[in-house]
Amino acid sequence: MIKITKEFDELEKYKDKFNKYLLSKQLSYTFRKKKRVCLFNEINKEYLKYYLKYIKKLKEYKKKFKDFDINSIDYKKIVEGIDFVKTHKSELAIGKNEALKEIIISINNIFNNCEKEKIYFNFIISKIFDWNDFRKNKLETLFLIFYKIGIEVCPYCNRNFVSVFKTNKLKTIDYAIPDIDHYYSQVLYPYLALSLYNLIPSCNLCNSKFKHDLDTLNNEILNPYINGFEDKAFFKIILPNNDNILNLRMLNNQEVKDSCSLVIEEKSYTIPQIRKSIDIFDLENIYNEVHRNKAIYEILRMIRLYDANYINSVFEDYNKDNFLEKDLELQKYLLDEVDDFLQEPLAKLKHDMHEQAKEYLRRSP
Ligand SMILES: [Zn+2]
C-alpha cells in the first residue's frame, strides 16, 4: 500500500468538466408513447413519481422496486437528497477525503429511517453520476489528469502496472487508462462516482477481485491519497537459524528458500487500517506465494555485496572521478532503488529488503 504523494493540478478544470457533465445529464421515461425528459437540475417531486412508476415496470428493475408502493414513498425526502447533492457540487468534484466523508454522513442523516427512499435516491443518482458513461465521454480529461499525476504501479499492491498512455491500436479511443477503483464504493455511494479524490488508479485484481464493493466508511482501509505503509509497515523475511547472519551466509539459495517466509510487520499498531488493508488485498499471502523467492535472493545479494565491501570500493573508485558525490546517491544507483515506490513494481519490497540486509550487517560480528 503506497501513498500517492503528487498532488492533482488543474482542479478547476476538472470541476468545470464535472459541472458541465452533470448539467447535460437527464432522466427519461416513456408515457403513452411519448418520451418525457428531465434534466438533472430540474428534477422535482412530480417527475419522480412518474419516473418510479415507469421503472417499476421495467423487467431489469422489477425485483429491486417490487416492494415500493408509489403512494407511500416520501418524494420530498428524495428531492431533499438530490438538492443536497446539487448544492455540494464543488466538494463532490474536487473535495478531499474529509469533505467526501462529511457528504456521506449528511446524506445518511437525510435518509435516516427512510431506507426505501434511500434506495430510490441512490438509483436516480447512479443514473446521473454514471461512471461508465463519464469514463467513455470524458476519457481525455481522465487521461490528462492521471497522466500528470504519473502513477505507474497500483498503489494497493505495488505489483501491477497501471500506466496511462496514448495508443492508436484501440478501435475507437486513443487513450489507455487503467482500472479506476472508487475508494468509497460507487454502488453504496453513487454520488461519489465521479469525485476526483475518490478515483484510484488500480490493477484489476485489487479493484474488482479483492476490494470490490467494500464499505470503506464502516470498514476503513488505507486511502492512498492520505497514507500508505511508509515506515509503519515493512516487508520482512523471517530467516532460519535464529537470524544469525553467519549461518545465513553458509546456506545455499535453495536451503534458504525452503526455510524462509515473508511477513508484513507493523511498526505501529495504532493504525488499524494497515492490517485491514493487508487482509483485504491478501498482500501477505500474495507476496509470500509470488515474490518470496525474489525477496530472499535480493537479501542474499545485498549481504554479499556489502560483505565484500563492494559499495565502499566502488564508491572510492567513482569518487576519484567525481562521478557521484553523495554516498546516498551512489548507494541508490548501485542498489537500483527508486525514490517513488509508485514508479516501479515491488519497489517497497525491494527497499525493505535492503533495509533488512543493512540491519543484519550492522548487527553481524
Ligand atoms: Zn493492485
Explain what you see.
This protein is mainly alpha-helical. It is 50% helix and 10% strand. It has 16 helices and eight strands. Helix 3 packs across helix 6 and helix 13 packs across helix 16 (347-363). The chain is elongated and about 85 Å long. The model has no long low-confidence stretch (mean pLDDT 88). Bound molecules: zinc ion (ZN). Residues 154, 156-157, 159-160, 202-203, 205-206 line the site of zinc ion.
Please name the defining characteristics of this protein.
single chain; 365 residues; mainly alpha; 3 domains; two-stranded antiparallel sheet; 16 helices; binds zinc ion
- What is the string of helix and strand elements? HEEHHHHHHHEEEEHEHHEHHHHH
Ions, cofactors and other bound molecules? zinc ion
Shape annotation: elongated
Q: How many domains, in number, for the residues?
A: 3
- Low-confidence spans: pLDDT under 50, at least 5 residues? none
Number of strands: 8
**Fraction in helix:** 40-55%
Secondary-structure content class: mainly alpha
How far do the termini sit from each other?
Answer: 35 Å
Tally of helical segments = 16
Question: What value does the Rg take, in angstroms?
Answer: 26 Å
Beta-strand proportion: 5-15%
Strand order of the largest sheet: 1-2
Please outline the major beta sheet: 2 strands, antiparallel
Mean pLDDT: 88
Short structural summary:
It is built from 16 helices and 8 strands. With 365 residues, it is mainly α.
